[in-house]
Structure formats: C-alpha cells, structure tokens
Design goal:
It contains 4 helices and no strands. By secondary structure, the protein is mainly alpha-helical. Helix 1 packs parallel to helix 3.
Length: about 120
C-alpha cells in the first residue's frame, strides 16, 4: 500500500469513526428528551432519523472529512517523514478508541490501564 492510498484510507476511517461518534451523542440526546413509549415512540424515532439524522450525518461527514484531512496534513508536517501519516492515524485511532469505549460502552480505559500496571 503506497502513501497516497494509506492517506485516503486514514482520512476515510477517521471521518467515519468521528461521524459515528457524533451520531451516538445525538442519539443519546434525543433519547433523553423523548419520553413517549410504544408505537408513537417508533414513529417519532423514524421521523427524527429521516428529518434530522440523514442531513446531519451528511453535514457531519463533510466536516469530519475536512477535519481528518487537516489532521493528517498536520501530522505529516510535525513528523517530516513518510511515517507521519501512520503516526497521525495511530494517534487518532487511539483517541477515537478511548472515546468510543467511554461513550458507547461506558468503559474507562485509562483507569483500567492504571489498575493493570502497578
């Protein structure tokens, strides 16, 4: 895999993971504010997805791609070598892993690592 393909993959992966994380925040917010139950909740959920999430996800994807490109370019400049993309991608994946573990699964990775290492 050449450097250009790796950069495209890194940008795409970071953009998708960021958009999914932002989507998770929006879903949690909506679920906290909708108190209905039963079929009305299903209809409301479907309407929210169609009217809000679809355009929001497209908007989020656009900006997270720009942010990801900027992040990758910055990591290239900081390291001044071919491995800058790989290093930047690795740091981004670690940060996203920590956020996913905390937001989606309620896991505190840092505390678990502190408990694991004496």
């Amino acid at each position: 895999m050449n450097n250009r393909q790796l950069t495209k993959f890194a940008i795409y992966a970071i953009a998708v993971l960021c958009a999914a994380l932002i989507n998770e925040f929006v879903i949690k917010y909506v679920k906290n504010h909708i108190r209905e139950q039963g079929y009305l909740l299903v209809i409301m959920d479907m309407l929210v997805i169609v009217l809000i999430f679809a355009p929001a996800f497209a908007l989020v994807s656009k900006y997270t791609k720009k942010l990801s490109k900027t992040y990758i370019k910055t990591s290239k400049k900081v390291t001044n070598n071919k491995n800058g993309n790989l290093l930047g991608f690795l740091v981004a994946i670690i940060i996203l892993f920590l956020l996913f573990a905390h937001v989606r699964y309620h896991l505190d990775v840092i505390q678990d690592l502190k408990n694991l290492i004496p």
